[in-house]
Amino acid sequence: MKLDSNNHSVFSLHYHLVLVVRYRKHVFDQSLSEYAKEMFVRLGENYNIELLEWNHDIDHVQIIFKAHPNSELSKFINAYKSASSRLIKKEFPEIKQKLWQEMFWSRSFCLLTTGDSTIDVVKTYIENQGKK
């Protein structure tokens, strides 16, 4: 496993993010997905967030990214949802017809941590510290 580092820490912080379109409307296609992905990459640079994987279905996107310990994840996600909602509706005006309110994304999101080890492996490792 390759670790990232900065001046004061060594880390490996990977996340799985799921963002759902408001009312689960079927609006995603390849061009919209690419546009949303590019915005994620650009905005992520300001928060020390790097996109690792992106895919979409007709009503949601699934994202794997890595972050630094000082990355403010909830601020980033809210900033991304706000900016991308506004710009997507501007760039793809046909979407306004499918969504009858201003928001593009659902209010909620799913954010999961990921890693090379399961929580059970880490618990066992910690429990066995100092034992021979």
Automatic annotation (TrEMBL):
Q: Name one GO molecular function term.
A: DNA binding
A single GO BP term for this record reads: DNA transposition
Ranges for domain Transposase IS200-like come to 10-129
Which InterPro entries does this entry report, sorted A to Z?
Transposase_17 (IPR002686), Transposase_17_sf (IPR036515)
Q: Which ranges of the sequence are coiled-coil?
A: none
What NCBIfam families is this protein classified in?
Answer: transpos_IS200
Write down what this protein is called: Transposase
Per the UniProt entry, what species is this protein from, by scientific name?
Caryophanon latum
